[in-house]
Amino acid sequence: MELSNKVKIIIVGLFIFLGVSISPAFSATEKQDDIRKLLKVSGILDQLSYMQDSLMNNVSMMVTGPFPKVPDAFWGEFNQLVGKKQMEDLIERVIPVYEKHMSPETVKKLIAMFETPFWNEWKDKMPQISREAGLIGSEWGREYTQSKAFNEKLEGLVKKYELEKLNPASTKKN
User: Fold this and answer.
1) Residue 104 in contact with residue 31, Cβ under 8 Å?
2) Does the CA dihedral 70-75-76-78 come out positive or negative?
3) Are 137 and 63 a contacting pair, CB within 8 Å?
4) Nearest C-alpha neighbor of 42 from the set 127, 120, 108, 102
């Protein structure tokens, strides 16, 4: 009888240990699933797709600088360099940020809020607004950095900090 009581205690102890150690894993998985849903219903996944487009546009400009003539077949393969797998990797990296800063209850409340018709309209319009605002921001950045005032200020900083003396190999030779 004494042996069976020890076995019972060990078994109960194992169940308690397993219950304590496994429950957080299940709740973390549920929270991660909720965060994925939040990313979708809030429109953030669409924003990540926009980030993918911006990244590829920037890289394509780096390609066309040294290689102005590029065949269409290249661009077909180029546009597949960042696909679903890479975007899933990005999402996996983003989820822990939400886990760190949001309680499960907050995530659930945000999901409920973002599933309302008001937020659905916002979510539908947000990517286009972001694209248009991003284009305006890019145009402004290009205009400003090409302006005489900006370049005079930049040249002043280069002279003030003697960058040409610090970097003799990279100075222009006229």
Assistant:
1) yes
2) positive
3) no
4) 120
